[in-house]
Design a protein that fits this description.
single chain, alpha+beta, Tumour Suppressor Smad4, 5-stranded mixed beta sheet
């Protein structure tokens, strides 16, 4: 009982510290507890893989310091971080509660501390309570801090375009950083055990390393909390705009005080060359003379309907591939298409596949509205080249031209068909 208490208490205290970092939308205790338990369970496959990897490398290189360090960098670090990552990806990452960037740090730390608690039981049973201080002060928070790197990568992946291996590559990079730091931490402790450096020097280096990682993770966490989509309501777009006739600024939807022309509810364009705002109807930048007409873009080899964002030089990059019958759009990470923009609502709009062979964009009572070709809409069937805007975030809808009449195509492609396959 004493061993169990000493194993759990420091991990639970650190867990509370990380949990309270999420100021505006704390994660449900049930999801936290399940993730913690999965992290503890992940120690079982980690022990197996570690044993197999250590046996293979020791048999190949012999039992020496070099093989011990190779085991740390090639087996222990990568395996343990992968198992902790699995604990989050298997459950919390798929939950709707994982809906803001800071959640990657919270759930990563939760799984890591569950893993550390299970390790504590093994270490305390083997070495006694003397190791409690080292585990509680260094190893337990170390597990949580290493996991923050792939936890942040999980959050970042949800915000990236769903293109090829882009998301997987981002998560893999976060995992490799965590594995490297984990192995470096263990290698430093190993150097102290082998008397390669005085213990006081080793502990000083380890303390500096942990402090640097802590500061980095804390800065990233505070930044994400400050920009949390749950912190405040969607930023409302300004209600003023320039008159399309004379350029005088007035209230949207009202007549211009100078010439009487109604100021439409449309956004201002910006010159792709100098970035200066342009009033409606202008085709040449009045500041630098550059053309405001759309520039030819680089062809994209994507067969599915998708959204692109236009770069200042005229090229287009994929923002999201519409690869399912219903695609939700919004600022929180529980949407399929995540837009990190303060003028976008948490759940702003959705794309719904239409039997005519395209997608319909539907506004979900957003604060700043959904626009198609400059007009605010509740829902609108999209065609290739249509501009779609959510708040201030602009995209262009791209789809292959139809090769058959509408009447001949009554169902979506197989990868979009919402009906179950026989």
């Amino acid at each position: 009982m004493e061993t169990l208490a000493l194993s759990l208490i420091p991990c639970l205290l650190w867990l509370l510290w990380f949990w309270f970092q999420d100021w505006y939308d704390r994660e449900p205790p049930r999801t936290i507890l399940v993730t913690f338990a999965l992290g503890a369970l992940a120690t079982l496959p980690a022990m197996l893989f570690n044993a197999v990897g250590a046996f293979a490398l020791s048999g190949l290189l012999g039992a020496n310091l070099a093989s011990e360090w190779l085991i740390l960098f090639l087996v222990v670090g990568p395996v343990e971080e992968a198992m902790k990552l699995w604990a989050v990806a298997r459950y919390a990452y798929r939950r709707p509660e994982f809906d803001e960037p800071v959640d990657g740090v919270i759930y990563g730390a939760t799984a890591a501390l569950g893993f550390a608690a299970a390790e504590n039981v093994l270490y305390l049973s083997r070495f006694g309570s003397e190791i409690f201080i080292v585990r509680g002060i260094l190893s337990n928070p170390g597990h949580a801090l290493f996991a923050a790197f792939w936890g942040l990568a999980l959050s970042r992946a949800k915000m990236l375009p769903n293109v090829g291996s882009l998301r997987a590559r981002t998560i893999a990079q976060g995992w490799m950083r965590a594995a490297l730091l984990h192995a470096l931490f263990d290698a430093l402790l190993s150097a102290g055990q082998h008397r390669l450096l005085p213990n006081i020097v080793v502990m000083g280096i380890v303390a500096l390393l942990m402090l640097a990682i802590f500061v980095y993770v804390e800065i990233r966490t505070v930044r994400h909390v400050a920009r949390s989509p749950h912190r405040q309501g969607t930023m409302v777009l300004a209600g003023s705009a320039p008159c399309p006739s004379c350029g005088r600024v007035g209230m949207v939807g009202h007549a211009c005080a100078a010439c009487g022309v109604r100021i439409p509810e449309a956004d201002r364009r910006h010159c792709p060359a100098c970035g200066k705002p342009q009033r409606a109807g202008v085709t040449i930048c009045l500041e630098c003379g550059a053309s405001l007409s759309p520039q030819p873009s680089t062809p994209l080899r994507v067969r599915e309907p998708h959204l692109v964002r236009r770069l200042p030089d005229g090229r287009e990059e994929i923002a999201f591939i519409l690869d399912r019958p219903v695609v939700t759009v919004g600022k929180t990470l529980d949407n399929h298409f995540v837009i990190d923009d303060p003028t976008v609502s948490k759940h702003h709009a959705k794309f719904v596949w239409h039997p005519s062979g395209g997608f319909v964009v539907v506004d979900l009572s957003s604060t700043n509205g959904t626009y198609v070709n400059g007009q605010r809409v509740r829902e609108n069937l999209l065609r290739n080249g249509f501009e779609v805007r959510f708040g201030r975030a602009r995209f262009i809808y791209r789809a292959l031209e139809r090769s058959v009449p509408l009447a001949e195509e009554e169902s979506p492609p197989s990868h979009l068909d919402p009906r179950p396959t026989p």
